[in-house]
Amino acid sequence: MTEHQRNWLGTPPRKSATFDDATLAEIRRAAATGIYDIRGGGSKRRMPNFDDLLLLGASMSRYPLEGYREKCGTEVVIGSRFAKKPIKLSIPITISGMSFGSLSANAKEALGRGASLAGTSTTTGDGGMTPEERGQSKYLVYQYLPSRYGMNPDDLRRADAIEIVIGQGAKPGGGGMLLGQKISDRVAQMRQLPKGIDQRSACRHPDWTGADDLEVKINELREITDWEKPIYLKIGASRPYFDVQLAVKSGADAIVLDGMQGGTAATQEVFIEHVGIPLLSAIRPAVQALQDLGMHRKVQLIVSGGIRNGGDVAKALALGADAVGIGTAALVALGDNDPRWEAEYNKLGTTAGCYDDWHEGKDPAGITTQTPELMERLDPVAAGRRLANYLKVLTLEAQTLARACGKNHLHNLEPEDLVALTMEAAAMARVPLAGTNWIPGSPGF
Amino acid sequence: MPNVDLAETSVRELNAALHKLGKDTNETLWSIANPAGEHSIAVGVDAPITVNIGGNVGYFCGGMNKYANIVIDGSAGQGVGENMMSGRIHVKGDASQSAGATGRGGLLLVEGNASARCGISMKGIDIVVKGDIGHLSAFMGQNGRLVVFGEAGEALGDSIYEAHIYVRGPVASLGADCIEKEMRDEHKAELGELLKAAGEIHKVDVSEFRRYGSARKLYNFNIDNAGAY
């Protein structure tokens, strides 16, 4: 279109849907720096999620429970398959693994405090177990990662459960890197590496490969801990049906399935946005795998990656999960990306709600940092209380929805309670499109 | 002296008995018969005892060991002495892959050969192998010392941090950021101490070894180094 035509028609210049503003900005950034973008958090793109599902609620054929009177159970037992001491949680919402190193010690302590107040578990990460977190966590899950930073038998025995990390939703198949600016003396000491250097986290375990080896590894960890601790396997959602079957075969007590909306301390943007599958699409294949093996509800399924509210919790459980995990939402509850720090976010070239350079260690909220003056901003007691409040709300919301569906326990929610708003969500969650009996991809259609 | 026959006693029973031992136990000498390649024998021991194992063992023997002296009168499967914290593990035969993986302390002595990934992610352990080692040994080695009397396979010390490597024989190739370094007097002394601990001090000349370690060029991410990964 010529300049004359544009002026005559009053037509604005047309932007490309393919080369939109964000895409153009990224091309310019890449051209200027020569390095891919690294950030924290999970996928930011719009994708099918729990908002695309609706609960049906009771009607003529279903009886609801009285919202403020009739019981709706929330407790869950994890690890009853083999462990002598399974974990008995009051609510089916756990705190996902996040490392000391990526998070401050105060943040880890706050997670422990909040989880304990709510009667649930928190989880270490790729940096070992801190006394603050152990001391404040009624139930602490100790991650067993490829890097084995800080791994030792004493902490294994101090843990309430062990989580062998195969992968995570933000980057299935990827390792990690904690950049040098976050490697304080304490972080370096715990990881047995020099201060200030980048600390790589391997993508594969150093002493086993494949499911057959993993079975032997799980048995070793059981032997070291005298078969007391539940052993979880954490997998990033990519091929959930096969991965869950292999996890069961390997002898796991519980499986943590992390969808691609799950956050990370730091990895490449291209990895976060282009690898793995959304949690919505991963739960039903995972549950199917458990059902095909006769292990549903025997090997517990904990799902994570984008859980935000009690609706998400109820829908995930209705699809067959035994519990959910939260990470990003828990950090927000602590104070991450809070508008009170807007002026400082602006100085970092961002705004509250968008800050994701967690790897740089400059977090104004004092959560994803090791800088003492920033860390001090987070009061672990107050932040723990906020997290406990948030967990309480999630639970009450999920109970409200379950009672409306006539369920006296959150685990009695079922796929039959759900419909989908979109064909994509219907196919992924294997529930009918709202107002129809059509489940795309199911036999008979 | 407790004698345990694994033809009659399960590994679980053995480990449970070992875990009950305190630091001041009088049961300091254990003899294990018929290991028959069982996995996870004597894992998580936390007492200053000696465990003599009369035969070949499977995966992870002596895993996470603290204080114990474990002698394997045979060969060891994958991950022998993995993540050991202290003590001593002596393999009289060969060791399979990932021997001493992520070990944080103590001494692992292998009379024969060790396979691939020996000392992978080592974090303070000392490993002495009197034969050869396989590829990718000391991969991402953080701390500790790896001594090899024979040859080393490909990609030795790939992405190594601060671990020290001494090899007497040829090295097939060095991994990313691993270089040969000058063998100064302090390194000869360090190697001598290791050989002494391994009972080899008067049998081997330290000057026959060459030293390898990190060039420290990949310690902080730099896009210009992308081709090295």
TrEMBL record, chain A:
Keyword Oxidoreductase present in the record's keywords: the answer is: yes
Is Glycosyltransferase one of the keywords UniProt gives this record? no
Q: Tell me the keywords, alphabetical order.
A: Oxidoreductase
**GO process annotations (BP):** glutamate biosynthetic process
Q: Which InterPro entries match?
A: Aldolase_TIM, GltB, GltB_archl_type, Glu_synthdom
Q: Per the database record, which ranges form the Glutamate synthase domain?
A: 78-407
Q: Which GO terms describe its molecular function?
A: glutamate synthase activity
Q: Which domain of life is it from?
A: Bacteria
Per the record, the similarity remark reads: Belongs to the glutamate synthase family.
Full protein name: Glutamate synthase domain-containing protein 2
Automatic annotation (TrEMBL), chain B:
Tell me a Gene Ontology molecular-function term this record carries: oxidoreductase activity
Q: Which InterPro entries match?
A: Glu_synth_asu_C_sf (IPR036485), Glu_synth_lsu_3 (IPR012061)
Q: Which SUPFAM superfamilies match?
A: Alpha subunit of glutamate synthase, C-terminal domain (SSF69336)
Q: Tell me the protein's name.
A: Glutamate synthase domain-containing protein 3
User: What's the source species for this entry?
Assistant: Hyphomicrobium facile
